[in-house]
Amino acid sequence: MSLAAYCVICCRRIGTSTPSPKSNTYWRDVRKIIKFTGSLILGGSLFLTYEVLALKKSLTLDTQVVEREKMKSYIYVHTVSLDKRENHDPFSTVDVEDHECAVWLLLRKSKLDDRTARLQAVQEMSETHHWHDYQYRIIAQACDPRTLIGLARSKESDLRFFLPPPRLPSLTEDYSIEEELRQLLASLPQTELDECIQYFTSLALSESSQSLAAQKGGLWCFGGNGLPYAESFGEVPSATVEMFCLEALIKHSEMPTHCDQIEANGGLQLLQRLYRLHKDCPKIQRNIMRIIGNMALNEHLHSPIVRSGWVSLLAEAMKSPHIMEASHAARSLANLDRDTVREKYQDGVYVLHPQYRTSQPIKADVLFIHGLMGAAFKTWRQQDAEQQGPTDQASEDEARHTTCWPKTWLARDCPALRIISVEYDTSLSDWRARCPMERKSIAFRSNELLRKLRAAGVGDRPLIWVSHSMGGLLVKKMLLEASKKPEMNTVINNTRGIVFYSVPHHGSHLAEYSVNIRYLLFPSLEVKELSKDSPALKTLQDDFLEFAKDKNFQVLNFVETLPTYIGSMIKLHVVPVESADLGIGDLIPVDVNHLNICKPKQKDAFLYQRTLQFIRETLAKDLEN
Fold first, then answer.
1. Which of 105, 273, 470, 604 is the most exposed place for a label (fewest CB within 10 A)?
2. Helix axes 101-110, 115-126, angle to 10 degrees
3. Mutual angle of helices 323-336 and 145-152, in 10-degree steps
4. What's the sign of the alpha-carbon dihedral 616, 618, 621, 625?
5. 60: pLDDT confidence band, cut at 50, 70 and 90?
6. How many C-alpha atoms does 226 have within 13 Å on its Cβ side?
């Protein structure tokens, strides 16, 4: 701009100046303009050239760095299944830096046909903790489902091995997960179902959050389905409806053909959405994992389960400090893991130890069977644990406090044991039965549990049964039934001993009390079978006593000496000393009530230490081999 202004001024000066008598005046001014303009143009050109060269130098990229970053960001994997990759190694031509070789070599090793090499590769991956995020991401993107499941079942695995589940479709304003659950249930076969599946399905399809809200006004809802809701009136109505739907789906998922329908109708994605929505409701999440665990019993559904992202969610749940959540996830992953697990764990059968893959050889089994109103986890908690803390934190000293002593104390003292806990539904009264049509006798339950336990490999190793209350009667009936079936001979031959915690071998006062006030309690079939004059109970006792003597089973009996409060008003000595006497084995009275007879106060308490001593002595030869 200054150059242009100067030229204009010079031109005006030339145009307005008077004619000079000398002819060279004009050319003198022109030369001045040319000199000044030329110097400016030359200097500007040099300056611009310098700036362009400097800028180019600063923007020069290292192409090697770019290529390395590309390799970190994009993993190209063939989509052909492993079964079709004959004579082709997808990792043989990968060009990577020396420090990246370990990742790709482990990936290559994890896909070999050699099972031992595969397992070693997965173990090395899980024990590696010095990798960068992108290296974990390489494994997550490039590993096969078999390796992914193995990592989920490895205790030391970093959660960065697992990709987030695929994004679910966005929700619309009129979306109702309650309605989606109803549609899924309605799409399942409704014929050839047992009474309980029909009951739960009809209950879920007929009730809505609005009708439940209307019923919350009163406890007694005669003429409707009010009574089953009595225990859930304090909950959010929509969550209650979802619980009914999940209860029905659990029953349906026990049938293989129904599992196929659940997967085909988008059930895996729907359950995942519900799982994420109810992060603060462990009960709903546990029921969802029960369904996934049941579906995982069908090997042809493993691929859809993995693709839908469930392995990532189960791997995270496995690391939960809450024993119930971790155990439900462990069951589902064990059913998915066909590389190291031969057994199949059906609904209600939970492995407390080992829940992860382990190099520790398992030499024997210990089975825990709860009694009336019990459960696979709460029955075996530490005494008064609920007052000491609402949850079991990882930082707590498990030697002082545990919510499941078989999983923590016994697993630590006897790591060579596989510890299984069984869960089944029971009730004191038909009013409180989860399924009013369900009338399961001890004989029926024993056959059902025996079938599930055999599928879990019970009988393949030496075993000890640990039972509480009515659970002991189930153990006796299961062993008698197994003795009649040739395919169950291994269960009898490998049974080494039985621990009975206050088992009413000769009947219980609870049954007498319930019969006397039957119009108030409407005692359930299980309670009726515990009466002292029950012919079935007497026959069971006589047959088992003779059978146990013949097989030389080792037996340890505990019995309570204190009464138990049933509700807030009834005080009852549930199992007296004379009823807990099987007729063989030691009988040890303990100054606790019926509920606490199987709940040691602490690890050095007599109840636990005597039980541990019995297990060690009975399995001494088996654990040494």
1. 604
2. 140
3. 150
4. negative
5. low
6. 12
- Give which of 420, 521, 514 is closest to 471, Cα–Cα: 420
What pLDDT band is residue 155 in, cutting at 50, 70 and 90?
very high
Question: How many residues can be counted in the chain?
Answer: 625
Which residue do the tokens 């031109």 mark?
A: 11
Span 482-494, pLDDT tens digits:
999 999 999 999 9
What residue spans of 158-194 are helical by DSSP H? 177-186
Report which secondary-structure segment, H or E, holds 556.
Answer: strand 554-560
**Amino acid identity of 512?**
E
How far apart are alpha carbons 352 and 414 in whole angstroms? 13
Q: What is the DSSP string of 358-423?
A: -SSPP-EEEEEE--TT--TTGGGSPTTHHHH-SS--TTS-TTT--S-HIIIIIHHH-TTEEEEEE-
Question: What sections of 436-485 are H helices per DSSP?
Answer: 442-455, 470-482
Long-range CB contacts for residues 551-555, cutoff 8 Å, separation at least 24: 551/492, 551/495, 553/495, 553/496, 553/497, 553/498, 553/584, 554/496, 554/497, 554/498, 554/585, 554/614, 554/618, 555/497, 555/498, 555/499, 555/500, 555/582, 555/584, 555/585, 555/586
Which among 384, 461, 380 has a CA at the least distance from the CA of 422? 380
**Secondary structure in 3-state letters for 230-267:** HHHCCCCHHHHHHHHHHHHHHHHCCCHHHHHHHHHCCH
Task: Tell which residue, 556, 541, 539, has the closest CA to residue 590.
Answer: 556
According to DSSP, the β-strands at 554-560 and 463-468 are unpaired
Q: From CA 433, how far away is CA 439, in angstroms rounded? A: 9
Among all chains, which residue has been given the structure tokens 């008598």? 21
Can you tell me the distance from the alpha carbon of 445 to that of 450, in angstroms, rounded to the nearest whole number?
Answer: 8
Greatest C-alpha distance within the chain = 151
